[in-house]
């Protein structure tokens, strides 16, 4: 492993704040989030649908009673989650509650699922905007009773650029983090204490104009939280973006959890690219408390690395580009099923951008480092596919081509076949500029 950067400078943080919806909220003091418990076989499941997913997205939920048979569509059906720009939802372990962050609205909502397919009611809401300093944070589940809100801000104003003697030193990247507790018995929400500090990269890297432009998709394991992030570069004279820049290694921000104390950046040369993903999760904790982290950037090999005890495991490297035929591929994230098996949506940049219906799904074996492209329909758009579930030991996705009806696909994690799935209930195609974005 390459040498770790100098410690991050912590600047401000834990303060008593008066918040619009939080005055009567109990502070969240859960000391540690454990690995997610096995999903109960009797629970509520939800299908998510987005209208204008790449713009001012409206997100709808509909309860699913049977993955194997029937027909599902959102024609005058479904419940709309609160969403100003877009919603980032997930469900409780029993599916009775849906938790969602209103990006640009800034509030976290809790909804209770009722008896009908589109029957949902608001159970609680809180507004962490003042605490985290942004209404445009990201939102990730990290345990059965907790999620994290996080954002990085970086600007080119006088407060965002550091100079010494007229020479450029760095562009500041300020990270903000807060833990949101979720009570799955009644859907109530609570807030922990916020943390805010400047994320410090390698000194030479920052002097060249590189900075942290996005942070997202953390994973928690054994008292540590691991955050992936994207790095961008600017011209240090004109402050214009250097669009050709791609990171030459992989970085992760590690902190103690849930205190957010002792932040540091760890680096490895085993992969090159960004580690933040885009709406799809990129890091997962296995049954042994190890974190598998995806690293992806166009033009670089797509890989999964391992994190353990606050550091990269330099003995592990899974090259998905090689495992899937050696052609250039990229991804926004992946899903963990169980026992070292996962599923990854990916696309081929040579055939079109991530925003085109140029997506595939592969079963991946993290232990044996093998992958198989699954025989699914073509013309898939999975750029913003956010979640999938396990039911009766099977992994379930909503697979709907851009121009045709689709289905729930019920994958068998034990099967190494490209046809290792059962095609289930029909999902009717939506209208123009719509997409199915997950099963919850």
Q: Could you walk me through the main structural features you see in this protein, from its secondary elements to its overall organization?
A:
- This protein is mainly β and 440 residues long.
- It has one domain (10-37, 120-439): Neuraminidase (6 Propeller), CATH 2.120.10.
- Helices cover 3% and strands 43% of the residues.
- The protein has three helices and 34 strands.
- The protein has helices at residues 129-132, 203-207, 320-323, and strands at residues 10-12, 45-51, 58-64, 71-72, 79-80, 86-91, 97-103, 108-113, 120-126, 138-143, 146-153, 161-164, 167-171, 174-182, 189-191, 195-198, 210-221, 224-233, 250-256, 264-268, 283-285, 291-295, 303-308, 311-312, 318-319, 335-338, 341-347, 359-365, 370-373, 389-391, 394-399, 406-411, 421-427, 434-439.
- The chain is globular, with a radius of gyration of 21 Å.
- Mean pLDDT is 91; it is low at 1-32 and 34-38.
**Helix fraction?**
under 10%
Tally of DSSP helical segments: 3
Number of self-contained structural domains: 1
Beta-strand percent range: 35-45%
| Spans of at least 5 consecutive residues with low confidence | 1-32, 34-38
> What value does the average pLDDT take?
91
Keywords:
single chain; 440 residues; mainly beta; Neuraminidase; six-stranded antiparallel beta sheet; 3 helices; 3% helix; globular; disordered N terminus
In short:
The protein is mainly beta and 440 residues long.
Question: Secondary structure elements and their pairing?
Answer:
Layout: E1 10-12, E2 45-51, E3 58-64, E4 71-72, E5 79-80, E6 86-91, E7 97-103, E8 108-113, E9 120-126, H1 129-132, E10 138-143, E11 146-153, E12 161-164, E13 167-171, E14 174-182, E15 189-191, E16 195-198, H2 203-207, E17 210-221, E18 224-233, E19 250-256, E20 264-268, E21 283-285, E22 291-295, E23 303-308, E24 311-312, E25 318-319, H3 320-323, E26 335-338, E27 341-347, E28 359-365, E29 370-373, E30 389-391, E31 394-399, E32 406-411, E33 421-427, E34 434-439
Parallel strand pairs: 4-33
Antiparallel strand pairs: 1-16, 2-3, 2-34, 3-5, 6-7, 7-8, 8-9, 10-11, 11-14, 12-13, 14-15, 14-16, 17-18, 18-19, 19-20, 21-22, 22-23, 23-24, 23-25, 26-27, 27-28, 28-29, 30-31, 31-32, 32-33
